[in-house]
Structure formats: structure tokens, C-alpha cells
Amino acid sequence: MTDDLAWKKGYFEFLENRPFTSAIRLSQHCFRDNYVHVGRYYDEYRNQLPGPVEPVGSWGLKTFRGIAKQISKALGIPLPPD
Prior knowledge:
The chain is α+β, with helices and mostly antiparallel strands. The protein has one domain. It has two helices and four strands. Strands 3-2-1-4 form a four-stranded mixed beta sheet, with no helix packed on it.
């Protein structure tokens, strides 16, 4: 998840909006906390789960620079300047 700064600066672009269907809706959401309670798992309401439930997301907020760095690493291109 990110804030709206990248949208305001024009770095992100709206592509499309799709409604959720039962075929893509998860029966259980699961997010790993990598910041405060490292290694714990939570649902979307911040209720702690006993363990991971696939697929596991990351609980946290990324800046647009953090997202750019992740994309650069995934594509194998130089990291953007800080």
C-alpha cells in the first residue's frame, strides 16, 4: 500500500477498475508484519493469526521511492537515486 503522493506527482497512472468476484475473493486475508511485530501474521482487521495463510502479503506502507526500488531490483535495472 502507498500514499497518494506518487499519483499527485504523475508517477502512477490509473489503468482500470475491476469488481471483485467470488472467483478472485480470498476467504482469508493474511499479512506478515515486517516492521513492529516482525514475523507475526494478521488479517485485514489487524487480528493476529496463528500462522501464515497463503497468499501472504506484507503489512505496511511504502513510499513511491520504496516501490521504485523494488521494481528496479525485480527488473535488474539500476536503482533510482535517493
